[in-house]
Amino acid sequence: MSTGIPNAASVGIENTNISTAPGIELDEQQHTLVGSVLDLFAGRPSLQKLTLWKDDAVFEDPITIAKGRKQFEPQWYGLQAAFSEIERLHHEVTSSGNPITFDLKTRYKLKGLGKDTTIQSVINIFYDKTDGKIQKVEDKWDGKLPDSSIQDVSMRQLISPAWWFHYAEAWAFWLWSLVWWTWWWKAFRRLNAVSVPKMVGVPKNEEEDAKKGN
User: Fold this and answer.
1) Residue 124 is inside which H or E element, if any?
2) Residues 6+ apart with CB under 8 A from 198
3) Which parts of 51-182 fold into alpha helices (H)?
4) Which helix (H) or strand (E) holds 88?
5) How far is the CA of 99 from the CAs of 6, 81, 135, in angstroms?
């Protein structure tokens, strides 16, 4: 099937060595999409790579729900602004369907503080088979996304010191609190999608992009 989607070389994708689970094969289109998203998570955005996204695409993780180009582009450029080091420790594509799914483990170091945190995610890439462009990317930390229900946390988890220890560092890092599990946290995620574009500039053209090293 030909979608007219640019190939990896034409949009400057750096991550072209894609690891796949046994029995999983990616076609050229899927290979390009996965490589571009790996670049984004590595803090290597560019306007060209983001042309692989539909204008009304969505990016969702535990701290944001970014809808549309004006919201999702600053999220990716924000990684460059916030972190001095981003190191991908592991990735593996586990499904070549729609969504394309892969496991991702990344180490981040916060600028100014030198604070490291490691996040393990399950990434889902939903794409339009007609034009080959990305419709939505989900970044599920520990394989989960919060919703508006506190029922997602069991009483066994709440009374488990191991559970609190596991999440304490990440929550402190992101200034999290128990509102993650309530509709208040959902409201915060939407607010974050609106506020980040006001703080993070997106290059207006490829010349500005190049000045950022992209």
Assistant:
1) strand 116-127
2) none
3) 69-82, 155-158, 161-174
4) strand 83-96
5) 19, 29, 10
